Amino acid sequence: MRILHVTDTHLGIRRYFRGSPPGWSRADDHFGAFRAALAFACDPALAGPIDAVIHSGDLFDRSHPPADAVAAAISAFTDLARQLPVFLVPGNHDRLGLMHHADGAFGRIPGLTVADQPLAVHIAGARIGLVPFHAAPEAWATAAAPLRDCDLLVAHQAFDGARVGNFVFRAGHDETIAPRHLPPGVRTILCGHIHPRQSHTLGPATVYYTGSTERTAFSERRETKGCGLLELDRTVRYRWLDLPSRPMLEVRSHDEAEGVTQGALVRLAGEALTRDVQNLVLDRGGWVVPWKPDVPDRQIGLFG
Ligand SMILES: [Mn+2]
């Protein structure tokens, strides 16, 4: 069984930068990464057919995303699901589920399955458990319990051992899922939620996070983004597939501003927080997070 794993596309993030072209918003980059990730499903370079595409949550950035984001997702999944089965699992940013969008449109796409509730499905003879995000570990464990012994579990959670920067999620801390919460017999987990790509063991299981398809915040500026390919038979192989990301830089000095390239997203910090440095960045074609807003509030996207 070969699965294309896509996650945390955060469609509909509208962020604006000083210097970016009129009509552009950061949402355009996220749409681009989303489409490029789905295109791997039919990419001959992956050497062999894909059995299914699984999106493991945070399809949209908000539970009430802009209508054009919903329409773009529906259109892309309608095209893709004509070619192979597609499965969607809601993340914490999709906290109302996915079926409420556009009057239930996701429920009417042939070949597409939405797991707003926990589900067991079959792909190429394997049993796959799909569990939507739950904030409380015990609630997640209850939802996942009927999926014992499935060949693959799909989740949108932070499991014990996941890392973001220097922070390591540990059981007992807020929403972290512990080995004891796992349904018995599960050995392989595809997961969303954690944006830096990684894998780690969890008791008898291994968790694979393919990470967000594009950088959703400046804290992700050094991360390579993309999606993943799971090959599961008697053995498990997981491969991360890279996608280009828009350059993102934090500029702390005049010298660093000299290194800005056309179309790079730039956040000024420290001694670089001056009008002169901002103008240098703009001259070099960089797009700047507004730091002293002189544009209307609705056009300002402050970046995390
Ligand atoms: Mn996310």
CATH topology of the largest domain: Purple Acid Phosphatase, chain A, domain 2
- Domains counted in the coordinates: how many? 2
Compute the number of helices: 5
Taking the sheet with the most strands, its summary is: 6 strands, mixed
- What is the gyration radius calculated from CA atoms? 20 Å
Provide the CATH architecture of the largest domain. 4-Layer Sandwich
Helix share of residues?
Answer: 10-25%
**Number of strand elements:** 17
The strand order across the widest sheet is: 4-3-2-1-13-14
3D structure, described in words:
It is a single chain. By secondary structure, the protein is α/β, with parallel strands linked by helices. The protein contains five helices and 17 strands. The protein has helices spanning 26-39, 67-81, 137-144, 254-257, 275-283, and strands spanning 2-6, 52-55, 86-88, 112-114, 119-123, 126-130, 152-156, 163-164, 167-168, 188-192, 198-202, 205-209, 225-232, 236-243, 248-251, 265-268, 287-288. Bound molecules: manganese (II) ion.
SSE blueprint and pairings:
Elements: E1 2-6, H1 26-39, E2 52-55, H2 67-81, E3 86-88, E4 112-114, E5 119-123, E6 126-130, H3 137-144, E7 152-156, E8 163-164, E9 167-168, E10 188-192, E11 198-202, E12 205-209, E13 225-232, E14 236-243, E15 248-251, H4 254-257, E16 265-268, H5 275-283, E17 287-288
Parallel strand pairs: 1-2, 2-3, 3-4, 6-7, 7-10, 10-12, 15-16, 16-17
Antiparallel strand pairs: 1-13, 5-6, 8-9, 11-12, 13-14
Helix pairs in contact: 1-2
This protein binds manganese (II) ion.
Manganese (II) ion is lined by residues 8, 58, 91, 93, 193, 195, 212.
